[in-house]
Amino acid sequence: MKIIILGAGRVGQSVADSLVSERNDITVIDTNAERLRDLESRYDLRGVVGSGIEPNVLAEAGAHDTDLLIACAAQDETNLVCCKIAQLMFNIPKRIARVRSTGFEGEERLVGPEGFAVDRIICPEESLTRYIAKLIDYPEAMQVREFAGGRACLVSVRARVGAPMVGHTIGDLRDKAPELAMRMVAIYRRFPDEPDRFIACDGRTRIEPGDEVFVLAAQERIADVLGALHRPQGQPSKPVRRIMIAGGGRVGLRLARQLAQAPGRFNIKIIEDHADRCVELASSLPTNVLVLQGDTTDEDLLGDEGIEEVDLFLALTDDDEDNIMSCLLAKRMGASRVLALINRRSYADLMHGTQIDIALSPAQAMLGELLAYVRQGDVQAVHSLRRGVAEALEIVVRGDRKSSRVVGRKVSELQLPRDVHMGLIVRGLPDAYDVSQGAVQDLREPEVIIPRSSTVIESNDHVVFFLPHKRLVRDVEKLFRVSATFF
User: Fold this and answer.
1) Please, are residues 465 and 406 in contact by the beta-carbon 8 Å criterion?
2) Residue 373 contacts residue 67 (beta carbons within 8 Å)
3) Are strands 68-71 and 2-6 parallel, antiparallel or unpaired?
């Protein structure tokens, strides 16, 4: 696929990093020649110096035969205008814009074909807020990713000593708790002086304390799965009540505003260094959110505000170093769980396995929304995992036994790559394609199925895979591609 990326900032670089590795033809536009030279030296892509709202610059970047435009420059206005020019002058089929402003949400006339002609608006701050909210709902989880409209989830959790499933093989667990419908799809195990090692899961794999375990299950079973891997037998789950947010920027404000919509559920404090911003926060947020002016790495301030009673400490400033240091300090002073927002990939890698429970990259939180537009076939959802190395993928099965290599076949008959793990199937979801063709819909309740070797794949199944290496994506897409006779 031929793709133009507008903007070589943090988001643009992360997008380029992910898409170049998938053998796409990438061109990046930016006004900063030095940034482009750096990208060209690191990746197999082309840089064009100039403004993305100038037609001659877009033409030089190859807009006449481009398949996808991703406009992620610093200014919302630049991204919106670029999408409109791409539609009017170059007829680029798909156009995505990063827009921070909340004023465009639900405004079809503004973003539709007669407006700015944006097919999809991406807001990193909104993606982060949704992601963090899921971690608050499931406090034992390190990651929570949704599929099939939220009916199924992929979670990662750190296995702890004393938890019911820890110390047992996966085969033992299937025999002892067959009612717990779930599929363990990957384990990452720590070894001295080397990165976490991927452990393929089969019936003989034993779960050891300290393992990061990835599990696919129906949404209503996630709490049970997390408890069985992370909490000692009989210990109740401790919900998140007290939250301290370090940094009152866009992400901190969005999150506090969303959490405050559940009166009485959370005790929320925000620490912000700048006095003017504190005034803005206090005027924008409900009175039940306490805004404090101070340094997020001030030990006395954290102590005075009861950091030892905080269930979740969130470092969400724009400074990676401050986020790391404040999280380490909060953890040392007694915070139950800490999350650091980290833009630099090298920093995120360093923090993995330290006292920081979760190191979250803003770009990784939103990459899946972009990748779903790049994938071939009927890909519904994509989630980038393990700092972009692994991936979880939801594909809708199309066609019939004649036009498809999977419909009507048993799972054991599918020629999947060796390390690809089919985690679950969601069957019975309403299908947009059939609705558009006027077909009669199946009215049965959607069902989450943990596939066995004898499970038969049906048309319109939503199949969720775990891929430990992104290079396996094309093989899976090829297997599920239907022949031309289907259309």
Assistant:
1) no
2) no
3) parallel
